[in-house]
Amino acid sequence: MKVKEVAELTGISVRTLHHYDEIGLLSPGRKAESGYREYTDEDLETLQQILFFRELGFPLKKIKDVLNSPSFDRREALLLQKKMLLEKRSRLDQMIALVEKTIQHAEGEIQMTNEEKFQGFDFSHNPYEKEARERWGGEAVDRSNAKLADMSVEKRDAMAAKMNDIYRKLAGLRQGAPDSEEAQSAIKDWYDLLNNNFGSYSLEAFKGLGQMYVADERFTKNIDQFGEGLAQFMSKAMTIFADKTK
Q1: Which DSSP category does 13 fall into?
Q2: Which of 8, 88, 209, 231 could form a disulfide with 223 if both were Cys (CB 3.0 to 4.6 A apart)?
Q3: CATH architecture entry for 129-245
């Protein structure tokens, strides 16, 4: 199957499939007579594995490491994915039940204690934290968490507003060149904001963060809310900024 046909079959964008190819996660395994590369049935099975892992919140780098491991076994992976998805469903069922009880409470049908209102919530795990620790070290993450914990609500709100302003400014520039003076000025504002509020970012860490914006679809989805293609634009601009500032 050609890339467009795979995109239509799976609902994944052609751009995402091209990105998987570029990073070596999934490359079409057969070359047709026309010269175009085509996806085999085995490639589609691998793509299904990737999507199962993505549904469970695995970053692309981790998925690539798992699939390339000599010990990888597709059946074992499917059994593990089934177990994890069942656990995820159980958590969602708990949250749905909590919402239903809260509706009944709001309508006066039942009374909930304050403890019952928050049963089922679990903020003890940050899905990005383990990844950040592995990439940049635990010390930088701890400094970042400590700074956030020390911030007042007003300061956090002000910081969030400033972040959104920078996102919007970069979104307005994303059709232009990432190495333009305006783009680089806005990216410097982004670099300064991160360093002032989330601990010390080295230029290499800043560049790596930009790469995660496109390598991890969770980041891409959040950033592209301000404009399609913004994550890709920021990633390029951050790489240019880091390389030029060294």
Answers
A1: -
A2: 231
A3: Orthogonal Bundle (1.10)
Contacting residues for 222 by C-beta, under 8 A, at least 6 apart: none
Q: Are 183 and 176 in contact, with CB atoms under 8 Å apart? A: yes
Q: Is the pTM of this model over 0.70?
A: no
Distance in angstroms (rounded) separating the CA atoms of residues 128 and 57: 9
Cα radius of gyration rounded to whole Å, the chain: 22
Q: Which residues contact 161 (CB under 8 A, 6 or more apart)?
A: none
| pLDDT tens-place string over residues 185-217 | 999 999 999 888 876 778 888 888 888 888 777
Predicted confidence at residue 122, as pLDDT, reads: 62
97 has which bridge partners? none
Q: Strand, helix or coil at 178?
A: coil
**For the chain, what are the domain ranges?**
3-68, 81-117, 129-245
Strands 37-38 and 30-31: antiparallel
What is the distance between the alpha carbons of residues 101 and 96, in angstroms, rounded to a whole number?
9
Which CATH code fits 3-68?
1.10.1660.10
50-54, 60-64, 68-72, 191-195: lowest mean pLDDT where?
68-72
CA distance 204 to 222: 23
Residue 7 has pLDDT above 80, yes or no: yes
